[in-house]
Structure formats: structure tokens, C-alpha cells
Automatic annotation (TrEMBL):
Residues 94-128 form a coiled coil. Keywords: Coiled coil. This is Predicted transcriptional regulator. It comes from [Pasteurella] mairii. PROSITE patterns: HTH_CROC1 (PS50943). The keyword Coiled coil applies. Residues 7-61 form the HTH cro/C1-type domain. CDD domains: HTH_XRE. The keyword Electron transport does not apply.
Amino acid sequence: MAVYDKIRLMRELHQFSQEDMAEKMNMSPSGYAKIECGDTKLQYDKLVQIAQIFNMKVTDLVDTENGVIFCMNDNSDYIYTNYNGNTEGLALEIEKLKLQLAHKNELLIQKEKEIQNLNKIISLLERKS
């Protein structure tokens, strides 16, 4: 999954709008939208800022298929980090949990309708008495 896709996913999971993110990052909404579209090359300081908004590590936000991250900071020092994460497994787990949540919400709506119908029945029975 590309970094900009992960950023969009994390934003949606935190229920932030693009405008919310733009405000938190002190940038224009169109500038932020370019980040999520992959039209903007992300600098390390922006990645740090985004990771902080989501309360996560930059390494959790950025990974490659082989798990190696290669960055260059402002001092031209190289940082080499190994990160072995199972983002596909996590994405599947997230989708599974979203489905479970949707199902529970449907059940909740159904139960609320049942309660309304039972209240109507009670009201009719009370009128007959």
C-alpha cells in the first residue's frame, strides 16, 4: 500500500475530513488533497507531522514491500531502518472489523424498531384496558 493510501486510510479511520487534516497541518485543503492523491512528494517533516496527528510512528506510516525504509534527513545523514510489519494482514483485519461494526449497527437499528413496535403494542393494550 502506498504511503498516500495509508494516510487516507488513517484519516478515514480517525474520521477526519481532508479539511480537518489541512487545518491541523497549517496548509490549504487542496495542498493536503495532493498528498492523498500522491501528487506531492512528501518531505520527512510532513511525514512526522502526519504521524503525530495519528499518534503513530513514522515507520508505521511508511514502509515498503520488503520492509526497508531509507530516509535522508536535513544534515545529509542517512537513516536505515528495518521494519517488518504485516500491513496486508492489518488491512484485512480492519476490513473484517468494519464489516462486524456495520452488522452490529444494522442489528441495533433492527432492535430499535422492535422496541418502537412493542411500545406501540403496549400503548394499544393500555387504551383497551
